[in-house]
Amino acid sequence: MDKYPTWQDDPPKPEQKVRVVGEDIVQPEQDETLNTTELEAIKNRLTKARTQLMLDKPFLGNLVLRLPLVAADSWCKTSATDAKSFYYNPKFIASLNNHQIKFVLIHEALHCALTHFARRGNRTKHKWDLACDFAINPLLIKEGLHPPIDVPIFRQYEGMIAEEIYPMIDDNLDQEPMDQHLYDDQANDDSK
Questions:
Q1: Taking the CB of residue 150, how many other CB atoms lie within 10 A of it?
Q2: Which of the chain's termini has less CB crowding within 10 Å, N or C?
């Protein structure tokens, strides 16, 4: 009996262990390196924001503390998560004030807490990422957090989950998600 080939038939190449899902790819020639002191200062700002979240919003702060901080400016314009770590572009974090940093930290932690990775199923990745962002952002505004400039906040989706929002999003919407979501189990699936 002939077996139909699937992406699992070919073992992933070492460089395919984690694939970036999202449109926030930065070309290497655009990267400007920061010195060690600047990188440390940015990480300290993230750590300070996490500590403040623990004091101000203990539940959300606890979620944020579970994600190790990883500088990833070579491929990430803003921030990202793979449900294991919080990845950030140091230049993006440096451009934010303390309130906006807290928003970004909690935003990524909620993707993990709400199991957005596992709930995607066969949905189109770009549209699903937008639906997840549209579900999370009004929650954070309601909690009194302040988003970075240009973060999409659609009040019509307030109180809705990503599965409810997904069919309401136009397939041709060219809006970009606020962040990137990394799926390490979909190495060769570009269609979703």
A1: 7
A2: N
Count other Cβ atoms within 10 Å, centred on residue 2.
4
Write out the two tokens for 79.
């921030």
DSSP assigned state of 191: T
DSSP 189: -
Helices and strands (H, E) in the chain, number of each type: 7, 5
End-to-end CA distance of the chain: 29
Q: At what angle do helices 36-56 and 98-113 cross, to 10 degrees?
A: 70
Q: Which of 144, 92, 83, 139 is nearest to 115 (CA)?
A: 83
pTM score of the predicted model: 0.74
Partners of residue 115 on adjacent β-strands: none
What are the tens digits of pLDDT across the range 65-118? 999 999 986 789 899 999 999 999 999 999 999 999 999 999 999 999 999 989
Radius of gyration of the chain (CA): 17
Contact 164, 148 (CB under 8 A): no
Query: How far apart, in whole angstroms, are the C-alpha atoms of residue 41 and residue 150?
Result: 25
Ordered by start, the domain boundaries in the chain are 33-176
Phi, psi for residue 103 in degrees, rounded to 5: -60, -50
Nearest CA to 75 out of 107, 31, 39 is that of 31
